[in-house]
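Structure tokens please, single chain.
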Amino acid sequence: PNSHNTMKNWGKIFLGTRLEKSVEARFVQIWSHLITKGLRPGDSFGVVKGQVAHNALNELVRQFLKSDCDTLMTLDSDADVHVDFVNDFRDLEDGWEYDAFQAFYIRRGWPPAPVWLRKNMLGNMTDEFVLTEKTADVDIIGTHCALFRREVFVKALGDNNPDEFDWFYYPRHEKTT
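Here you go.
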């Protein structure tokens, strides 16, 4: 939970998506509806294509930080949501107390499991299984469909250059010199 948040809600949303190599026509239709009818005055949006997931997310954060929006909402290009989803998600008061808030999403593959992790008593990350509709504190969330307050990225950035800093990374794609 976010104990220092002074906003009662998520404020202005920057809706960002990363277009995967192949995007289904259904998502193009969903995205078009979201950006034309699903955003409120002051909201904005950004798209990144042709990059692996973590690099695309870093670029979306850079775009977001250059905006005057309060919250980045990430939405993967395989999501299937209704036109009012952005507002339904942002208006869910149970989420307002958090710095980051993820909509339900399961990993690809078998068995399906949520992308929510919690540190156990031994300090290891374990899957957090959700058996009922609820809001729960976890330690790590996925980015398939999530809200992140500006302060999350600003705090992580510190004094680093935002054009070079990586908020997201994938160990198999580490840069080598």
